[in-house]
Structures are given as C-alpha cells and as structure tokens.
Amino acid sequence: MERIGIIGLGYWGPNLVRNFQAVLGPCAVWGYDRQRDRAAEVARRYPGLALVDDLDTLLANPHVDAVAVATPAQTHYTLARAALEAGKSVLVEKPLCTEAAQAEALIELARRRGKVLMVDHTFVYSPAVRKLHELVSTGQLGRVRFIDSVRINLGQVQPDVNVVWDLAPHDVSIADYLLGRSPQSVTAVGAAHTRCDVEDLAYLHLDYGDGLVVHVHVNWLSPVKLRSTLIGGSRRSIVYNDLEPVEQVKVYDCGVELRADDCEGRRQRLVDYRTGDVWSPHVAREEPLRRVAEEFVECCRLGCRPLADGEAGWRVVRVLAAAQRSIKAHGARMAL
After folding, report:
1. DSSP for residue 49
2. pLDDT at 1
3. Residues of the chain with CATH 3.40.50.720
4. b vs e for 259-277, b when ≥16 Cβ sit within 10 Å of the residue's Cβ?
5. Residue 98 needs a FRET pair 20 to 30 A away by CA distance; which of 32, 80, 250, 322 works?
6. Region 2-17: what's the mean pLDDT?
7. What is the pLDDT of residue 159?
8. Which residues on adjacent β-strands are paired with residue 238?
9. 173 neighbors 121 (Cβ within 8 angstroms)
10. Where in the chain is the domain with CATH 3.30.360.10?
11. E strand segments, the chain
C-alpha cells in the first residue's frame, strides 16, 4: 500500500492523518470531509495532506489503495461497503457498524474482493493491554474469574449513538482480546437523561459461563474521568488504570483459597485469604494508533490478517447489539 484516503476529518480523522503520514510519508495521505472549512484547517495543520472535494472521486482514484473511515457510527457500513466495492482495503473507526448483519456482510465482501477489513480497536494495540494479554495468556493470573471495567467522564454526548456504542466498544474489545472467546449471554440496563431514548449511562453484564463474568460501566455524566479495568484471577489479579502516567498496570499477588476441614465429623469449606506482593511490570510508552496504522499498512502490503480484523469487529458489534436489545427490554437476558 502506497496511499490512503481518510474519510472524515472531524474528531478522530486528524489523528489518523498524523499517524499515516508518519508511516507512509506526508504526501501519501489524502483526505475528504463534507465540511470543507474543517478539511482545510486539517490540511493547514498537516502539510502534504491532499484534499479531495468529492467522495466518489476519492474512491475512484486508482492511486489510493485503501481508505480509513472516521465518520459517525451510523455511516460506517455504507462507507465501508462503498470502499470495498471500489476495490479498496478498509480501516473503520470503532464500532465496525451498528448491526451484526452489516458486519457479516462487510466481512464477506472483503473476502470476495481479497481486501483487508480492519477495525480501529485502538486499546487492543496499546502496550498496556498487550501486557495484560501476556499476563493472562501465560497463566500468571491462573483462571480468570471476572473483569470489571469503568469508562466514565463528563461528555462527549454523541449525535447518532448512545453511550454503549460510543464507549463500550473499547472495553468489549479488550475483553474479547484477553479472553479469546465470546460471552454466552448479555444483560444490560441504562438510562437517558440528556436526550430522549439515548442512554447516557449504562451497565453491561457479560456471562461467559463457568463463573466467568465481565461487567462494564459506561457513563457520559460523571464529574470525574475514570478509565480502569480490574481483572481477577484464581492466583493473581490486575488493576489497569489507563490514566496513570507511570504505573498503568499493577499485579496483585493475592486472592482467596478454599480448603476442606473436618469439624466434629462435619465437612466444612473454609476460606483462606492470601496476600502477597504488588508489582508493576514495565509498559512501553507508544501511541497505540501508530501501531494500528503500521499493522494496517503491513497487512495491505502482505495480504495478512490484522489482529482487529472484521471478525473481531463483528464479535464486538454482536455484544453491543445484544446489550442494546437488553436495555430496551428492561434488562432481559439476551443469549448469543
């Protein structure tokens, strides 16, 4: 891949421009936005960015090998489909789309066209989450029993989706990456305070069976910003604080153990509490989006499969859609 087009130059688009210019070169990135004044401002900030006035012109350009879609979530499916049909590989900002059937259609279209379909699950590419994956996959935590995530702040209320589709893709994609499997069912509750029928806070409960549960709290109304994940294992536990400037990941060598004890002929189960050291492994200071851009370029050039591929995007969309149905059904359990 030699050139890429960025569709959408609003909140996230300029970050994509900056990182793809670093990977491909300043003049290898083209941009399009319906708001020409906004596009012109981004071009002033990033010299070398070539602006295109018409989306069809961008997609028809044979010198543009791929596109990145950074537009409102409701437009992702239509734009990604148009790009794939035009013969471009596609990177889509999270979520991949807003319906599981749409995600399946994009996966099949990319397969037929022989193109890369990747989702910008940025946190999956962060050094901290990669470290979490290393600790989980090597068995250092023992059997994972639960994941508890909090992602709350004041704003930014989105115009087209609720807080579940805006913030929860991060935590659901992290859980998907760490656990390597999908939940059996989803239950969720939420409430709308700022706009009718648009939830601005929600609680998601993902049941994986065998006692493994994932709980996600997302909120646009919190007076403080929190980005934390607690992973509990049978041997050790982890606290991951994305806002911590130094020790983002802390490993706690503590937990509970059950032991059998005979007491006057009666068999009882007693709980032992074990406490040990707390340590913080080294986490590299790298921008996750740079790794997203590098992997997308490499996969386009070599024809390989990215970590956050279309199927990963589909798995996340499937959970989010189930959570949305559960909220509308007043917390009913949705089997997957």
Report:
1. P
2. 81
3. 4-123+289-308
4. eeeeeeeeeeeeeeeeeee
5. 32
6. 97
7. 77
8. 231, 251
9. yes
10. 124-281+317-335
11. 4-7, 29-32, 50-51, 66-69, 89-93, 117-120, 144-154, 185-191, 201-209, 212-219, 221-233, 237-241, 249-252, 255-263, 266-274, 278-279, 334-335
Q: Which CATH superfamily is domain 4-123+289-308 in?
A: NAD(P)-binding Rossmann-like Domain (3.40.50.720)
pLDDT band, very low/low/confident/very high, at 125 (cuts 50, 70, 90): very high
Contact 1, 89 (CB under 8 A): yes
Task: Fill in the amino acid letter for 235.
Answer: R
Alpha-carbon Rg for the chain, nearest whole angstrom, is 22
- Report the pLDDT value the prediction gives residue 258, as an integer from 0 to 100: 63
Read off the tokens for 22.
């670093």
Residue 32, classed as helix, strand or coil, is strand
Closest of 132, 326, 159 to residue 228, by C-alpha: 132
pLDDT at 2 over 70: yes
Architecture of domain 124-281+317-335: 2-Layer Sandwich (3.30)
Given a contact cutoff of 8 angstroms between Cβ atoms, the answer to whether 68 and 94 are in contact is: no
Residue 151: φ, ψ to 5°: -135, 90
Q: What is the DSSP letter of 243?
A: T
- What lies within 8 Å, CB to CB, of 25 at 6+ separation is 48
pTM reported for the whole predicted model: 0.94
Look at residue 169 and give its three-state secondary structure: helix
Closest CA to 150 of 26, 242, 36, 78: 242
